[in-house]
Amino acid sequence: MLLLSILATVIPFTIAFHIPSTHSLHKMSTKLQATTSSDTINTEQLLSTLIHAATHGAHTISTLADTARSGNIQFKEEGDARSALTIADTSAQRVIVSSILGSYPNLHIVGEEDESVEVETDYQYALKNDLLVNYEWITRSDGKVDEPPPEELDMKLLTVFVDPLDGTREFVEGRLPNVQSLIGVTYKGTPLMGAVGLPFPTSNDKNSTEVLFGLVGKGIVKVCTKKNEGNTLSEVNDIINYVVPKMGQYQTGDDISVSSGDSPSVRSAVDLAEKIFGGITLQVVGATGNKLLKIAEGTTTLSLLHTKTSLWDTAAPTAILSALGGKVTDYFGEPLVYNTKELGNKMGVVASGPGSNHLHDDLVKNMRGNKEVLSILNGLDIENFSGSQCVDITRDLDGYLLTPDYFQQAMGSSIKGAVKSYYSPEDTAVCHDHHYHLAMPTSSLSDRPTAR
After folding, report:
1. Where in the chain is the domain with CATH 3.40.190.80?
2. Per-residue model confidence as pLDDT tens digits over 165-176
3. Across the beta sheet with 2-5, what order do the strands follow?
4. Burial of 153 from C-beta contacts in 10 A (0-12 / 13-18 / 19+)
5. What SS3 state is found at 255?
6. Could you say which architecture CATH assigns to the domain 40-242?
């Protein structure tokens, strides 16, 4: 049993109860979601359509680049350059979503630029489902072999996350190589495959678009499509394999590079990385997908993202990194939660490649004991504790951090605000039988005897 003390701001009394371990919770959640299968999709055929959709999305962006950047630019959040929205964003989403739904009308799609994702025939392309032929997959560089992906997928357990133009700020400012078009698929709540369209590739002919795609258990591939005269997209049969250098693996003693941004909300995480690793090379780059794919390219060791990214930003690059043996978590070491009731990655993002996963683990462990990083968590009493906190464990069935309201309801208290905050020190934790023992003192129960 893991003894986990969850202490309220006022501490006259202790009540204890049991919840399953985090790993058990994730398994239980998956089982609850799994219902009787009816419609299934062939895995590689689905990925093929995503590759083709990403190709059209990337082409749409490159074609509209001059018009979009000189035209009307809106801001979803006033004064925040990261929230810029252009005609290229909305047009690319219409193309991607309409085309995918044309192939699979019942797929659950979550798109960034429009809460209602539906077919618009003027933007729809017929997508090929047989593109995955004779490609040489780039596999894990650490020599490990993952379990192969399932051949068929239950459509009810799939969600497609679309960010049609990741890096709109960079797009508007003319930093075009940062721009990507992201299509990621989760299966049973875990990223399985992703296709990343590159409208402005730096590694190939400028008169082309590229797509980097990955399938967990298989590997990654990059393909290139040339543009015809008149800037039209060539036939799909002209999509050609593009050689991707094998990702370099971090070796002990190598310089540690970190890709991140200039957001103040990530500064404390970057400062902590510099402190615990004794110095880092900071790469300030734009766009979420671009930061994460720096690891897939082997040009960075770790990536740290701020607390305002969303699931459509991380689904596709996470699948690609996972296919290479990489790792993506929140600041405290838990997998990102792909549940559409909450679309933001509010606990930040840390990513690493094979060979540097131990650095990843060291960093998130230190984050669990850093007050500045922990201050992003609502309900955690950061003023009255010292040492690391078990915020990787205090999660609900879906993987979200437990709140004071959760504990109040669990104890059956009807007094509003009875539990104002809590903390969960790791130094008192003891593991036994895959269960956690939580002790919760609360002022509302101070007149009752201790219960266990």
Report:
1. 257-374
2. 998 888 888 888
3. 2-5, 435-440, 15-20
4. buried
5. coil
6. 2-Layer Sandwich (3.30)
